[in-house]
Amino acid sequence: MKRYLKLYWHFLLQRFKILMEYRANFFIGAISTVFMQGASVLAIWVVMRQIPDLNGWSLGEIWLIYGLLTLSKSINHMFADNLWTVGQSYIRTGGFDRFLVRPIDPLFHLLADRFCHDGIGHFIVGLVLVGAASASLGIVWTPLKLVYVFVAVLSGGLIFVALNLITSVSAFWLMNSVPVTRVVFETHEFAKYPLNIYPQAIGIFLTWLVPYGFASFYPASYLLNREVGLFFVWGGPLMAAVFLFLGYRVWLFGLRHYASTGS
């Protein structure tokens, strides 16, 4: 573990050296996502101006849900964005072969090969939303709640990574896994809102099959003192561990069936 942490730090430093060669591009990329997310937040504000109460949820409470999900998504975006393009950028070109001839885990090498600075904008937006929502809702931040938010956001980020990993494995057969990954990834849009506003089937789907609810709705419910059940409040780390294990097993299965381009 210590060796891999040192290696990742080395990869990260090299990535930032590359990014700093074009500083304007770095800052534009990081800030552009702030404006994109800002447009979504503005849309929610416009809707909630017309419907102040969404099945018992106020604008501030929805912003809290949205902010927590955005923080979790930012982790995936910064540290695992390479999973999106493993097919078209590595497997199709034959570049994936270099991961197989080096004395480190191929999945680690794939993830460490690129840090996506666009995720910094997502993190900033998420942080601002959670801060603004907690101020408007009068949430009292105790040490336990701060630790809980850290664990919940980290668990949510790992759930994003695990689901992207599971779907990206299709690249070993399809060469381009983006459509498959997008189908699952885009369902996180439902998790930007309270799960209890949807039909029960969608709530079950976002809890057990594609558990984005553990990155947004359930942590927010705990912070707002809403009753959702002990497991749903604290089950995020468990769900992250289960899906990461499943994702890694699926990855190993795909790796065993990988065939080089031969070029």
Which descriptors would you attach to this protein?
globular, 263 residues, mainly alpha, single chain
Structural notes for this entry:
With 263 residues, the chain is mainly α. It has helices at residues 2-19, 23-50, 59-79, 86-91, 97-100, 106-112, 119-137, 143-168, 171-174, 178-185, 200-209, 217-223, 230-234, 236-256. The chain is built from 14 helices and no strands. α3 packs across α8 (143-168), α8 packs antiparallel against α10 and α8 (143-168) runs parallel beside α14.
The backbone outline, from C-alpha atoms, is globular
Q: Helical region count?
A: 14
Classify the secondary structure makeup into a structural class: mainly alpha
Rounded to an integer in angstroms, the radius of gyration calculated over CA atoms is 19 Å
Strand segment count: 0
Summarize the biggest pleated sheet.
Answer: none
Low-confidence segments, given as residue ranges, are: none
Strand content: under 5%
How many structural units, i.e. domains?
1
H-E string: HHHHHHHHHHHHHH
Note the gap between the termini.
34 Å
Helix content: 55-70%
